[in-house]
Amino acid sequence: MAIKLENVGIAVRDIEAAIAFFTDLGLTVVGRDEVSGEWASTAVGLDGNHAKIAMLQTPDGQGRLELFEYIHPDAIETTPTLPNEIGMHRVAFSVDDIDAALETAARHGCHPLRGVANYENIYKLTYLRGPSDIIVMVAQDLTKS
């Protein structure tokens, strides 16, 4: 059986803010829609499912994020995920300039959880809180610089 990762779905409080953040990091919006109806309720498993959605893609065309903002049922607020919690953890991106990526994130009020680490002069990386408290990892491969 062949398998490939299609996308990672992330529920957000404000889809416009999330789109602005991820497009500033370099992703491109490849589709937007508002979904509802029996098919949407069946697929997701929520009665009356109604959401705004946006599909974003990395410049290499290999990675996709599907963002969704629930209209119905109401979104459920939770405490922000911690890096060591079980379950959906983070979304990670390779960048060619981590400093530029962090400047972009800072314009959206998003900053590293602790700082930027250097892993054996191979990677510079950090975790930051993105929109809707999503943990986002950015990493620069120092061997390609």
UniProtKB/TrEMBL annotation:
<dbReference type="GO" id="GO:0046491">
    <property type="term" value="P:L-methylmalonyl-CoA metabolic process"/>
</dbReference>
<protein>
    <recommendedName>
        <fullName>VOC domain-containing protein</fullName>
    </recommendedName>
</protein>
<dbReference type="InterPro" id="IPR037523">
    <property type="entry name" value="VOC_core"/>
</dbReference>
<dbReference type="GO" id="GO:0004493">
    <property type="term" value="F:methylmalonyl-CoA epimerase activity"/>
</dbReference>
<dbReference type="InterPro" id="IPR029068">
    <property type="entry name" value="Glyas_Bleomycin-R_OHBP_Dase"/>
</dbReference>
<dbReference type="InterPro" id="IPR051785">
    <property type="entry name" value="MMCE/EMCE_epimerase"/>
</dbReference>
<feature type="domain" description="VOC">
    <location>
        <begin position="4"/>
        <end position="141"/>
    </location>
</feature>
<keyword id="KW-0479">Metal-binding</keyword>
<dbReference type="GO" id="GO:0046872">
    <property type="term" value="F:metal ion binding"/>
</dbReference>
<dbReference type="Pfam" id="PF13669">
    <property type="entry name" value="Glyoxalase_4"/>
</dbReference>
